[in-house]
Amino acid sequence: MRSAESAREPLQDTLTGFGQRAVPYLPLALFAGLGAVLAYLWKWPCRFGGAWNHGTLQFTNFCYTDIYPLWWNEKLNEGQVPYFDFPVEYPVGIGAIMEFFRRIIPGDPDTTAAGTVFYDLTVILMAVCLVVGVLLMAALAGPARRWDALWYALAPALILTAYINWDLAANALALGALLAWSKRRQWLAGILLGLAIATKFYPLMFIGPLFLLTWRTGRWKPFLQTMAGTAGAWLAVNVPVMLFAFDGWKRFYVFSEERPADWGSLWYFFNQKQWPILGDAERLDTLGVLSLAAFCAGIALLALTARERPRLMQLCFLTLAAFMLTNKVWSPQYVLWLIPFAVLARPNAKPIALWMVAECWYFFAIWLYLVGIQDGNAHLGIAGDTYFTAVWGRAITIVIMMAFVVRDVLRPERDAVRQDGSDDRSGGVFDEAPDRFRLALA
Question: Which domain of life does the UniProt lineage start with (predicted)?
Fold first, then answer.
């Protein structure tokens, strides 16, 4: 009897310890669940009112989503397998989600009911990803700042854009990868990062910050392990599709290369206003690459010359913001990518709130603009010049936040996260590591 009781004691201690660690996160999970529900209710006029089936009403009710029409556009209603039967314009992670739900939806697939069920099932998964993402962000922020994750759980822009596309899935994977890195579990970090990149392309930008801080600290083994895990995971999910359905697999990459300047991007403004050089469609790809390279060079210079090494989350935010500012398209839901990293980089309410106002204005402006350019609907929408105030509004507010982060890097005493004397709690092997390389400008 004693031996049985003694065997149960370690298990009870483990469960008790886990419960004590989990309790502080439960309110955040509930708030994230509330955000997920509010985002679902925002789509009410489309989900329950039929506005998805009306080209104008889905815009004037501000409840558009990509998910519902893609049931038909990607031929899922015809039973076609993504990539193998029909080329899909998304990475394989999203294609896998599409195929999973396609297989389990009952009844006649070629009905509005099937498309609605496809949306509902996708929303359930995205809601879970939001809750998981909020908890991961709270863990990255650390015990003293875990409540900063409320910005992700209940941000107005998140509620408006959460279910436009599958971005929340990539967010959960990317945040999981960075949390694993912070816990010094390099292989797990690499696997999750590879899966995130296979779901949405933007997490690729986080490799740059990891490389720069590795260069500065000389911690090459953990970095190389993570990169091996990233490459292995990405190849594991991509190579089978590449081998058996290459034309379908490459559709995402060909589409990304060939698409013109599109809604939301600064390049779209330059193109529509016919600016010399910047508005030249033939030079768009070159200009995009050069502008992103210029941003990245500046971030690298900052990372390698700063008196105190930047925090990993600061560099992740800067590189991701640079990617968004220079991209050919800037969809409303891309705000979901940036919210966690903007807050982790600089949890200051005023600039974040200003940015949220700009993002919300853009959300409403894009749908009104799309209505306004439809024949006979100009009176229902807004003109191009009004729309472009929203395009520039969010770009300017993001640049302002980037400037504050740069200032915090150059003057670390102004960094709110470091006020408790810590170095880089989410930096993993970079935390408290001595510098092995620092570029001196003078």
Answer: Bacteria
Tell me the per-residue pLDDT of 189-236, one tens digit each, with 9 for 90 and over. 999 999 999 999 999 999 999 999 999 999 999 999 999 999 999 999
Q: What is the DSSP letter of 309?
A: P
C-alpha to C-alpha distance for 182 and 74, rounded to whole angstroms: 38
């600061």: which residue's tokens? 314
List all residues 6 or more positions away from 116 whose beta carbon is below 8 Å from its beta carbon.
47, 68
The span from the CA of 342 to the CA of 321, in Å, is 9
Helix segments in 207-334, DSSP class H: 207-217, 220-244, 246-249, 251-258, 266-272, 284-305, 312-326
Cα–Cα distance for residue pair 50/225, rounded to 1 Å = 50
- For residue 82, the SS3 value is strand
| Tokens 């570029």, located at residue | 439
Report the SS3 class of residue 279. Answer: coil
From the list 350, 352, 334, the residue with the least C-alpha distance to 342 is: 352
Quote the tokens at residue 218: 């000389």
Structure tokens at 5: 């009781």
DSSP 192-230: HHHHHHTT-SGGGGGHHHHHHHHHHHT-HHHHHHHHHHH
Among candidate residues 144, 92, 87, 98, the one with its CA nearest the CA of residue 121? 98
Q: Give per-residue pLDDT as tens, 139-154.
A: 999 999 999 999 999 9
